[in-house]
């Protein structure tokens, strides 16, 4: 199948390589000349503009976006709309907010253009393992791009989950769950790391738990890797970023009146990780000194 691909970053570039291995013909665009050259080296045809990309595809066209969510995605879609024709299919495989995708689906439908929102999970391992694809949009469009989905995903790794916006909604919740899983593993490993007298080998325990344990998972496989490389993680700074889906999941829980304490606290822990020195912790420490006479640890030079 011939497909246009916009965005050749860590995920987009690997998705192009996987599709090329599946025998698909790829016309690719990215602002970075280096990214385009790498894609060319893998067998893709590259272009220097979105206009040229559309011109190189035959109707009905399929254009897949793997660009940053938010303004970048919006700008790319706004540029593509006047270039596309009725019956063409636009796929957003990035981490867009599902309400934005719902609006885009309606906008494009009015112009006769199909829109699919494809929540994509797999990270940098997707090239080898395949990508899990959660696709929202009209079923006819889904069926037309199914050959692409099938080659991107592992067996049983893609599905049409509902109407426009539902793919990114499911991916949002998926990432919210990921926050909770990561936090639970992190807290457990910290507890074991702190009990120094046992001399626990965290790599060995992570590997052990992945054989028959109820907490076995791919994340534990990755834990084996990180503890093998750096048993105490001394080279890692405890700063945890996020790409927005956790926040959106918590907002959704609030809007729906559904308690989601694990995901919410996991998100707040990420915020906490970015503070070099927590002012709120200082307030608590100082207040404990005031009402209970508890020791307040002072920084050097502040006696």
Q: Topology of this protein?
A:
Elements: E1 2-6, H1 10-21, E2 25-29, H2 33-42, E3 45-46, H3 50-55, E4 62-65, H4 71-80, E5 89-92, H5 98-110, E6 114-121, H6 126-129, E7 132-136, H7 139-152, E8 158-162, H8 166-194, H9 202-209, H10 218-229, H11 245-256, H12 261-273, H13 279-292
Parallel strand pairs: 1-2, 1-4, 2-3, 4-5, 5-6, 7-8
Antiparallel strand pairs: 6-7
Helix pairs in contact: 1-2, 5-8, 8-11, 8-12, 9-10
Keywords:
303 residues, alpha/beta, eight-stranded mixed sheet, 13 helices, 8 strands
Describe the structure.
The structure is a single chain. By secondary structure, the protein is of the alpha/beta class. 52% of the residues lie in helices and 13% in strands. It has helices spanning 10-21, 33-42, 50-55, 71-80, 98-110, 126-129, 139-152, 166-194, 202-209, 218-229, 245-256, 261-273, 279-292; strands at residues 2-6, 25-29, 45-46, 62-65, 89-92, 114-121, 132-136, 158-162. It has an 8-stranded mixed beta sheet with strand order 3-2-1-4-5-6-7-8, sandwiched between helices. Helix 1 (10-21) runs parallel beside helix 2 (33-42), helix 5 runs antiparallel to helix 8 and helix 9 (202-209) runs antiparallel to helix 10.
The largest sheet, given as strand count, sense and whether it forms a barrel, is:
8 strands, mixed
Low-confidence stretches: none
Q: Compute the number of helices.
A: 13
List the strand order in the largest sheet. 3-2-1-4-5-6-7-8
Class by alpha and beta content: alpha/beta
Mean pLDDT: 94
Q: Helicity, in percent? A: 40-55%
Strand residue content: 5-15%
**Shape by Cα distribution:** elongated
Distance between the terminal alpha carbons, to the nearest Å?
71 Å
Rg from C-alpha positions?
23 Å
Number of strands: 8
Secondary-structure element string: EHEHEHEHEHEHEHEHHHHHH
